[in-house]
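testing teh design pipeline on a random one, pls ignore if ur not involved
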């Protein structure tokens, strides 16, 4: 858990996907269950909203972010579900990893202290949100509106 509980925001869609991930974890795998405990705590205290109402500076599933861990260099990562990890892709971050759970639902610039597997609290901060699916969808839909604010259906 975070030392001080920081408010997080999740879309209903992400919340449902993450609950499904938790439900699919084998109960006999102690390491995965420990990771699931942190994610479960995050889900229990999340503020939920529709994807269309997601603030543009909140980390959601499939967001690409630049994050800093403690005093180390920053790293650009994309937050994904565990089954979306790919061998050899160091730019993907599972939501079940400690850092993945820590950044889920955070607002850019909000530092948090989060326990690492070695038990040491690590400060984690999202420096930049390069891509957020909900923000991109909203911008794409806004571009489709005509001058009267009505949506136009575009051929596929």
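output:
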């Amino acid at each position: 858990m975070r030392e001080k509980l920081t408010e997080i925001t999740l879309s209903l869609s992400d919340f449902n996907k993450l609950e499904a991930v938790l439900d699919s974890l084998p109960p006999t795998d102690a390491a995965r269950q420990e990771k699931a405990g942190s994610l479960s705590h995050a889900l229990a205290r999340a503020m939920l909203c529709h994807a269309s109402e997601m603030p543009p500076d909140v980390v959601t599933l499939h967001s690409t972010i630049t994050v800093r861990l403690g005093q180390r260099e920053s790293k650009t990562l994309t937050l994904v579900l565990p089954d979306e990890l790919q061998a050899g892709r160091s730019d993907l971050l599972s939501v079940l990893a400690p850092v993945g759970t820590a950044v889920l639902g955070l607002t850019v610039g909000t530092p948090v202290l989060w326990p690492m597997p070695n038990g040491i609290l690590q400060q984690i901060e999202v420096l930049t949100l390069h891509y957020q699916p909900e923000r991109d969808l909203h911008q794409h839909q806004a571009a489709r509106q005509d001058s009267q604010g009505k949506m136009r259906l575009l051929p596929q």
